[in-house]
Fold this sequence. Notes:
Helix content is 59%, strand content 5%. The protein is mainly α. The protein has one domain. Strands 1-2 form a two-stranded antiparallel sheet. The chain is elongated.
Amino acid sequence: MIATTRGPLRRATTVSLDQELVDAARELDISLSRACEQGLAREIKATREARWREENAEAISQYDAHIAKHGLLLARYRRF
């Protein structure tokens, strides 16, 4: 999101939601826009993290193998 002095820019959009969820949200005074925005932000974060792990799996595996073979570089300084 791009922040401005007034807050993030907003774009109107149309989404289809399960009617029971919409009714329950309205009964509980839950903002549909905010709830959808928060859920979408969580989903974006999770997807980006999963893609990063997938894209970097080989490097992570190589690093793990290096540590298993040679140990941690500064292990002698650890106090735990």
